[in-house]
Amino acid sequence: MKPWREIAVPHKDVLEGTLKQSEFAADITHVVQGTASPGYQDAEKFFARTYITEGMRLLLISVANRLSNGTGDPVIQLQTNFGGGKTHTLLAVYHLVKQSKNTGKLAGIPTLLDEAGIMSLPHASIAVIDGTNLSPNQPTEREGLKIRTVWGQIAYQLLGSDGYEMVRDSDEVGASPGKEVFVSLLKKVGPCVILMDELVAFYRQMDGTERLTAGTLESNMSFIQVLTESVKAVPHAILLASLPESNTEVVGTFGQQVLTTLEKYFGRVENVWKPVAADESFEIVRRRLFKTIGSTAEMEATCAEFMDYYRKNKAKLPSEVQEGTYAERLKKSYPIHPEVFDRLYQDWSTLDKFQKTRGVLQYMAIIIHRLWQVNDQDPMIMPGSIPLEDSNVRTKSTHYLPPGWDPIIEKEIDGDTSAAAEIDKDTRFGAIFAARRAARTIFLGSAPYSSNNSHRGIAVERILLGAAVPGHMLAVYEDVLSRLRDRLHYLFADVNQFWFETHPNLRREMESRKERIELTRLNKTLKDAMSRLAGQGDIFAGVHSFTPHGDIPDEIGNGPRLVILPPKIENAYAKGNEKLAFDAAETILTYRGDQQRIHRNRLFFLAPDQSTIQRLTDQCRTYLAWQEIIDDCESGRQNMGLFQVKQAKRDCEAAQSAMEQMVRECYRILMIPIQKSSNKVGFDVRKIPSSSASKIAVIVEKTLLEGEFIIQHWSPLLMNKHLAENYFKNGEAEVSARKVWMDCCDYYFMPRLQNEGVFERTLIDGVSKGDYFGFADGKDGDKYMGFKLGDQVFNLGLDEQALLIEHDAAAAYKAANAPKTTSTPGDQPDVSGGNGAAQPVSGSGTHPLPPSAQPVEKKYKKYYGAAVLKNNCASAALEVQELVDEIVMPMAKLPGVKVSLKFIIEVESESPFDSATIRTVRENSNAMNLSDHEFNEY
Predict the structure, then answer these.
(1) pTM for this one?
(2) Are residues 381 and 500 in the same domain?
(3) Do 213 and 287 fall within a single domain?
(4) pLDDT digit string (tens) for 404-426?
(5) Residues 6+ apart with CB under 8 A from 30
(6) Which of 141, 352, 467, 558 is most buried, by CB atoms within 10 Å?
(7) Element (H, E) at 199
(8) What range defines the domain where residue 879 resides?
(9) Could you please report the per-residue DSSP string of 26-54?
């Protein structure tokens, strides 16, 4: 798409900024007197810049028919809002009837006359009554005559002094002439047109407080009745009168009474003129402001791009832009976007001082001039394009609004120092000026209603429509709206509506309170939030949020402990600057208050991320400030309207949610103490996932379990390895079982077992299997008390006397102390085989069994085993590893052995699986080449 300024070309006076605002205010008296600007005075130039609307077309045809053959409407009333084109339409009739230029040279007129079937218009007399030019108490002098009344003016303008003489008596006394007199006058004149503009402005001065030369209001209203009926009675006479529709032109109660009376008299015989339709306004403005719209192909290509963009984003834009008619609206309004017209005609035209089409022309002329100067590159002129930073544009914008808007535009909406410009310094927003475009669009769509509580704001979908151009991502604008809502003091938001007002929102009050939040209250709130979000987890014996080291227990407990460091710089972790966080954790590992900490291997640490601490504390202050405002409102210390209370509560909830999210973002640094050289502590740093679905402690536990930093099932093989490396060396053959467990809790090189139960289960498993180590309840001299090796054991006592014995030493001790058995003829064992038949026993002194009867040792070549894992997915990997180590590996090490492992998964659910889960499992099953997998309905 090309920028609009490379296709369309404005008129020279618009480009140069020399266009006077008065040029848009048509003055019929100036035209009659020959003193108007060329665009209004010259008939050819007038029609060249005039778009003949449907209403104007029908009106001009009616006038032509009335003058030519007497078939048109005799009386036509023009009534619209201020600046709606009434005077402009009267001027079109004036130039058509005046015939100062050949009608063939008037743009659009030949076609119009052809449609009416008129070859040429007859010569007609014209009388023009301009209510703003006449005075009800100051006669007009013409050819020595003093003309006092409206009927005197009409008679003189139609027929000169002869005409005036026909109504002289009525004019001198201010009494309405009779219908017979006026019919005679009109017949004598022949084809004639009477144009009456701004009648209310003239008649509202006749309030009865004093006698005026133009007569009384009653006599003038009687004349209006006479005039309308007289014109109706004369075939080639026509009357056109403009009446206002807005309070701006009516002015006061008496003016309204005058309007009501005029409407009553005109309503008896008139045909109401059809006002300008919305889409016709596009062409009116475009023709007056633009010399040419350039290449039709390039214009249509731009409009097609917009429609394609709107179709792709239909879910986020107004439904109307999906309709085929919107494509036509884009073409008709180009290079101005229809949304600009909609906001000006629908919203700004409700303001008393805004003059509908005239106001739009004045406003857009200034905007186009400025955009041309700054080399605007937008494909169309949109609400987001309006350069409110320009003093002329800003002045024109605020001219129609109540006081107080100038500083709001300058500080918040537009300009280099505005809050929106500050937000646009973010590259993501600044690349398309998203903040300023959105703020301008909100201003255009909401400023006219700033004091109207029944209409609040402009919807997000219309903001996107007014700000975004093809190529812009709507998500960027959605993000920037949240940023504007948080930063701007005069911007209000409710659900999906945004609007500006001239009084500050509560955000300024919040910002003021935010700076006064006490540090102790801030710290307590953060501590409470962290405690709530962290939870306790399933395996931690304690989670200590921002707890002084003197209050963190030095106990073994039923699980390890998670220590969460306070959100301070001296505790913060930063990549490349880890020392602060490491030192803070090491202090806690070393001390408990003024005592040395013993059970150091029971602690894990969660440290704050240095890059997010400031944002976290700032967000917490925001939440507390909103909470203060709500508390003051509920206690009566601050008076707020219902909307503001509702908004404050919503902002407070949003601030709390944002604070909690920031807590999760800030606390993702998990530090795990590890053994370094020289007997010093180091830290293994892991970044935990950020999820609002789980408590922080649960997420930490999962990370520790998956990394085997906390062990719930310890293989006796691994335990035996630790015993060999750390205890059974230098000839040592036994160690206190209690010491091994305590060392697991104290030293970083030892495994972190969840609790003593894990340690005991490992002992029981190792002792029962007989392949790893022996156990004794104690020792008396050289004798082990309660010695066990390869015995089925169900529980073991882990008191201070219990011993773990190196396997070879335990086996030797067991062999040396095995009970000896002897047999005598009188003490024969039962050799019946369990069925009463005597069986010879080898070595018993009886005859040995024959070779054929010797028991044959079976030769096993295959093994099959099945195991049911516990229903704990987190520990499944450990269980599988233990099965491989304990069962598979002893056979796999032998030569000629082939091992085949199969993993069987059976899952049952009380309710059907959702489609997303089924899809994920099926895709992963195929990706991992499972030989057989399926879902069943039962």
Answers:
(1) 0.59
(2) yes
(3) no
(4) 999 999 999 999 999 999 999 99
(5) 36, 40, 41
(6) 467
(7) helix 199-203
(8) 873-927
(9) --HHHHHHT-S-HHHHSHHHHHHS----H
